[in-house]
Design brief:
This protein is α+β, with helices and mostly antiparallel strands. It has 3 domains: 90 residues, Rossmann fold (3-Layer(aba) Sandwich); 63 residues, ATP-grasp fold, A domain (Dna Ligase, domain 1); 190 residues, D-amino Acid Aminotransferase, Chain A, domain 1, CATH 3.30.470.20. The protein is 29% helix and 27% strand. The strands form 3 sheets. Strands 1, 10, 11, 12, 13, 14, 15, 16, 17 and 18 form a 10-stranded antiparallel beta sheet that branches. The protein has a 4-stranded parallel beta sheet with strand order 4-3-2-5, sandwiched between helices. α1 packs across α10, α2 packs parallel to α3 and α6 crosses α7. The two termini are 37 Å apart. The relative contact order is 0.13.
Length: 399
């Protein structure tokens, strides 16, 4: 990998170029699709989203097919109307994914989805790529859970192998007396289960890696992530981690993207352990919440980079232009943020320049992601102070 721009080109692969003026189909109509469409439009691309919600975030800025994700007729219609298809979430129906691959060009493919939809398959693939993951065990009964907990120790985290996100589908077991309750709660979902040893970490970081259809790879600067209640609260860039560790994280993310044969973006979430090692927690084959900071803070945003990657265009420069802190706007924060946007403080200052992004969701619910703010700054401590002084995020329980 070259140092300049963290870009590598694999000359053995030839890209299938989807030229500007073509139409990109998006499976999913949420905020990731919305921001993808807004980033791709200046490059000359049109977008069609397939989503069951008629006026969702993406449908407000693109054409739309309103149908269930499992609707094969709608999937065929999406294939007929578009030149390339991407997805904005992992839980795509396997039969629909296969149909789209048969009838259209889906550069991300279904193999990557198959791997990342299931924690056990994902962990095996990460280990095969040379990554270190937390010690884990598959669990199919309460007795197996108890035995695995004896082996891995407490605290450990019991997770569903499929479907979990934003802290859902997880149970932190701090004592063996919780085994029955943990197994009863998560086995009721019907999903396979996995027990993971709790990693004692200094902080959580993530890297957004991009890999184009011609094998070119690129990585964005790592973000330091702060979670509250299992949901991402803020991403800090540059991450407050030694430079050597950050370089290692970028290299690791690029290696995983290549090993997985990814096309488009691959978000790699990691723990920076108290032992100084990097442990990969999970990956997501799409734009990611922790990459939203790139929209104003980098030369190329993660959304433009994803469009470039799936269309076979040269990847853009990922360089950081300014320090930044991204803070999420959840349903409980929306009223305060909307009031802030009408005040003089929304214009920012010499120290912090806020950039607001609201997703246009119809209903604000506690814990639901309604938007985010990128706080451009000279010093990330000034941006963190801005968040505290705004008084909007104080109600969130800190981990």
């Amino acid at each position: 990998m070259s140092e300049a721009g963290n870009v590598k080109v694999d000359g053995a692969n030839q890209a299938r170029v989807i030229a500007p003026g073509s139409t990109i189909g998006v499976l999913g109509g949420g905020q990731l699709g919305r921001m993808m469409a807004l980033a791709g439009a200046p490059l000359g691309y049109r977008f069609v989203a397939l989503d069951p919600v008629s006026d969702g975030p993406c449908g407000q800025v693109s054409a739309q097919i309103v149908a269930a994700y499992s609707d094969k007729d709608a999937a065929a219609q999406l294939a007929a109307q578009t030149d390339v298809i991407t997805y904005e979430f992992e839980n795509v129906d396997a039969e629909v994914a296969a149909l789209l691959e048969e009838r259209s060009y889906v550069p991300q493919g279904s193999r990557l989805l198959y791997t990342t939809q299931h924690r056990l398959r994902e962990k095996a693939a990460l280990e095969a790529a040379g990554a270190t993951v937390a010690p884990y065990a598959a669990v199919t009964s309460e007795a197996e859970l108890d035995a695995a907990l004896r082996r891995l120790g407490t605290p450990s985290v019991l997770k569903t192998a499929t479907g979990g996100y934003d802290g859902k589908g997880q149970f932190v077991i701090r004592d063996r007396s919780q085994v029955s309750a943990a197994y009863a709660e998560l086995s009721a979902t019907g999903a396979e289960l996995v027990l993971e040893q709790f990693v004692r970490f200094q902080c959580e970081i993530s890297v957004i890696a991009a890999r184009s259809s011609n094998g070119e790879t690129s990585t964005f600067p790592p973000a330091e992530n702060i979670h509250r209640g299992g949901i991402l609260h803020a991403s800090i860039v540059p991450a407050r981690v030694p430079a050597g560790v950050l370089a290692q994280a970028e290299q690791l993310a690029a290696t995983i993207a290549e090993s997985f044969g990814a096309v488009g973006l691959l978000a790699v979430e990691m723990f920076y352990g108290q032992d100084g090692k990097l442990y990969v927690n999970e990956v997501a084959p799409r734009p990611h919440n922790s990459g939203h900071y790139t929209m104003e803070a980098c030369v190329t945003s993660q959304f433009e980079q994803h469009v470039r990657a799936i269309c076979g265009l040269p990847l853009g420069a990922p360089d950081l232009r300014t320090p930044v802190v991204m803070v999420n706007v959840l349903g409980e924060h929306l009223e305060g943020v909307e009031a802030l946007m009408l005040s003089p403080e929304s214009a920012g200052s010499d120290l912090v320049r806020p950039k607001f992004h609201l997703y246009g969701k119809a209903e604000a619910k506690t814990g639901r992601k309604m938007g985010h703010i990128n706080l451009l700054c000279g010093d990330v401590n000034d941006a963190l102070a801005w968040i505290d002084e705004a008084g909007i995020w104080q109600s969130a329980d800190k981990d």
